[in-house]
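Predict structure. Chain length: 367.
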Amino acid sequence: MTETAAPTKPRVRVPFWDNARFACIVLVVMGHAIQRQTSDSDNALSLYLFIYAFHMPAFAIVSGFFSKATPPGLRQMRRIITDFVLPYIIMQTIWSLVQWLVEGKNVFNPTEPHWTLWFLLALAIFRMVLPYLALLRWPLLWAVVASVTVGFFSNVDSTFSLSRAIGILPFFVLGWKLRHWGLVDRWRHLPTGGIWAIRGVAAAVLGGWLAVVLTGIRSFREFDLRFWFFYDDSYQDLGEPVWWAGLLRLALIVLAVLLSAAFFTLVPRRRTFFTAFGQATMYVYLLHSFVLYPIRESGVLKDDHASAVWLLTMVFASLAISVALSSPWVRRVFRPLVEPKPNWLFARRDERPPAPSRTDPTGARRS
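Prediction complete.
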């Protein structure tokens, strides 16, 4: 009598992470939506600085949590091409065509990512370097050192998103380490009665940062603090080629971790009405810029349209855009662009029947 293999347990979907992904992507859309208003409105700049202090670090933490540091096999190597490289080339080409038609820019430069595409390249870089970082002692410390140090080298720029990828690398590595530390699992299983005090502290932390921004908005505008949150330009390009610039970046990293922790603490742990939207974060990320582009470039958000009423309008519009781009029909229509499956491209063909990816580049596993 032969033994039968024990049935594998189906993976249990964790609503917390879908909620966190959707909350992150809403902040991304919101930050891009109000960017044109920041030049004429202190309120808009305050909200912008509040969001940009932690929203992309939080996104990187989520992506790192679902990443593996084992040497890549054939399947993982193929996914670097299908999940990162091909969508980047497709979207970069579309953006070049749009700018040629609308602005007359006759330039196609795949080394300079358009607008939001930098993060796609950054994720690909993270996936490739993580197995090597994992070989070292204190990988998180080395990632922080790299982030702080790269700002001193003006020759490391935005080509292929290299400077920005190195800049936010600590958050990706932190997300990967969080899975090993088990902190998130302990938080998810904490009794309901014990979470409200912690959430009160988290709300106070975020409220404190907002108060700091509102109080010092004139100084932050003069200092151009928003550019420091991009983790992109060198300290020299930021106008501060001094030794303490590295300490400032280190302080901003610590601030981003603190704010991200507070943000994740406030994310609902249970299933909500927006949980399912967290399965389509890359669709929202890659497509929302095409929705915002005509609004941003028309100049409609300048001068009087930078008022508080218009600011609130764009905040609610960002939420609506995020929900709309998370819908199943958007995923069906745009799947060939966001999740291309060119089996013909590979020397060793995948004989499995074609199917949508079960996970996206941020680790979102679809139902």
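Summary: Residues 74-103 form the longest helix (30 residues).
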